[in-house]
Design a protein that fits this description.
Oligomer: single chain
Distance between the termini: 82 Å
Strand order of the largest sheet: 1-2
Number of helices: 6
Strand content: under 5%
Bound molecules: zinc ion
Number of strands: 2
Shape: elongated
Radius of gyration: 30 Å
Largest sheet: 2 strands, antiparallel
Length: 138
């Protein structure tokens, strides 16, 4: 059983017909929802293997499409159809764009400018200045 009240054998019947890559049972673009459910069940413990398997099938589907309709191939659509749905759900939060990330050197300079004076810095205070590093009278 798939865990959804449908047998895995039933889900496995939803295979692609080439070169159209439509399901032989429900005629939806493959992988149809039952096929996805079956694949998720079979590969529940190895999503990477599922993604690799579907990459191979996506390659075959694109090659078939290029033979039959060479001017109608949408790589993004194929990726969404074959691969994108295999990602873990919910998807991880996106990383901020590189331009929005703090610059490490700037962060360190800011930290250093706000940090209390270290013991080594205090040792450099000239004698007779009342402890002020700039030499001004306290
Ligand atoms: Zn189907």
């Amino acid at each position: 059983m798939s865990g959804y009240g449908v047998s895995l054998a039933e889900l496995r019947r939803h295979v692609a017909a080439r070169p159209t890559w439509r399901c032989r049972v429900c005629a939806a673009p493959w992988p149809c929802q039952p096929a996805k459910l079956g694949l998720r069940t079979e590969y529940a413990r190895d999503r990477v293997a599922l993604a690799i398997y579907l990459c191979v099938l996506m390659h075959d589907a694109i090659a078939d499409r290029l033979r039959t309709h060479p001017d109608q191939v949408d790589p993004t659509g194929y990726f969404d159809r074959f691969i994108a749905w295999t990602r873990p759900w919910p998807p991880p939060a996106p990383s901020p764009p590189a331009d929005d990330r703090p610059d490490l050197h700037q962060t360190l300079d800011t930290y250093r400018s706000q940090a209390p004076v270290s013991v080594q810095d205090s040792a450099r205070v000239p004698p007779g200045t009342g402890g002020r590093a700039d030499g001004a009278a306290p």
